[in-house]
């Protein structure tokens, strides 16, 4: 595969144990090892994390923004999936 | 500000990118989102002119961060103590990081990193005029932190709420880090002001040279700023150039008193009726001269930047070649 630029990697940081890795930005790097190194320098200069993930950007499969209605609207009218849908007597409402 | 060159006529810095098809239904949806104060994300439909404006603005901003490393980097080896050297190294590294956050945000709009860098290196793209002034003494490093980064913060805080999500998120990260830059600069100057008369004179001299360029960073007056109205409509610009400049002047004049320096402006005085400081006329000829490439440092800055890029070419190529070799080996093994 002919590459002129270093490929793009998405960077995910776990800020401390007990929390999820969260997307925080992207870097260019020639391979995975250097992507981690660059991500450390760019995104964790102030103890922002205890663990890093890097994923080559073109390996991420994203939902189509035009498909937002069919993907996400069906959840809109299912309010019975939320605990607040159910009105209980005051004495037991902390349930 | 860092993107003040938006006010000069459009040059062909635009790289190729996905062309958006004009569509009235999409346009209405976009307008509604902007009006509601919502965010536009990378894959959302956007008008071509919105995309182009953002590419110009974010890339100018990124270039400014990268070129901004040069006037300060120039003092790393001459920092007076190990503590100050460590601080300056951290600050310059931050500026590099800020440039990278911003290039990544610009790339979400469909331009490549190499295209953006090529526009800078070939002189087609602009960066902030402030970085074309020389840093002559150690006091300049303090004044750059206090005034230049101070002005940048003033401008960048409203950008944290701009309508383009990736830009807004980059700005949140940058603003968090920028506060350290301003405070270390002021701290450096306070230390010098407690020193000898010669050191105090050095601080005053640096303030005299940086004051006007700093307030020019906010860009032309509102009445002369050609892109402001459209950018305000799009939620890219939340506060006008003149309002931000006034806010900056009001804040820094008080800080100058604590420091014990004066601003080189005889017309600077408190206006009770307005509740603001009045200040003298800005020399816009000088401003445009520097923006258009005729400042003291334009040629040197760009040459230093291009040299760094060219000198690093073999490293980039070697790293890619190494990655290719390993890809090939991995696919053979598979």
TrEMBL record, chain A:
<dbReference type="Pfam" id="PF06243">
    <property type="entry name" value="PaaB"/>
</dbReference>
<dbReference type="GO" id="GO:0097266">
    <property type="term" value="F:phenylacetyl-CoA 1,2-epoxidase activity"/>
</dbReference>
<dbReference type="InterPro" id="IPR009359">
    <property type="entry name" value="PaaB"/>
</dbReference>
<keyword id="KW-0560">Oxidoreductase</keyword>
<protein>
    <submittedName>
        <fullName>1,2-phenylacetyl-CoA epoxidase subunit B</fullName>
        <ecNumber>1.14.13.149</ecNumber>
    </submittedName>
</protein>
<dbReference type="InterPro" id="IPR038693">
    <property type="entry name" value="PaaB_sf"/>
</dbReference>
UniProtKB/TrEMBL annotation, chain B:
<keyword id="KW-0560">Oxidoreductase</keyword>
<dbReference type="InterPro" id="IPR011881">
    <property type="entry name" value="PaaA"/>
</dbReference>
<dbReference type="InterPro" id="IPR009078">
    <property type="entry name" value="Ferritin-like_SF"/>
</dbReference>
<dbReference type="InterPro" id="IPR052703">
    <property type="entry name" value="Aromatic_CoA_ox/epox"/>
</dbReference>
<dbReference type="InterPro" id="IPR012347">
    <property type="entry name" value="Ferritin-like"/>
</dbReference>
<dbReference type="InterPro" id="IPR007814">
    <property type="entry name" value="PaaA_PaaC"/>
</dbReference>
<protein>
    <submittedName>
        <fullName>1,2-phenylacetyl-CoA epoxidase subunit A</fullName>
        <ecNumber>1.14.13.149</ecNumber>
    </submittedName>
</protein>
<dbReference type="GO" id="GO:0097266">
    <property type="term" value="F:phenylacetyl-CoA 1,2-epoxidase activity"/>
</dbReference>
<dbReference type="Pfam" id="PF05138">
    <property type="entry name" value="PaaA_PaaC"/>
</dbReference>
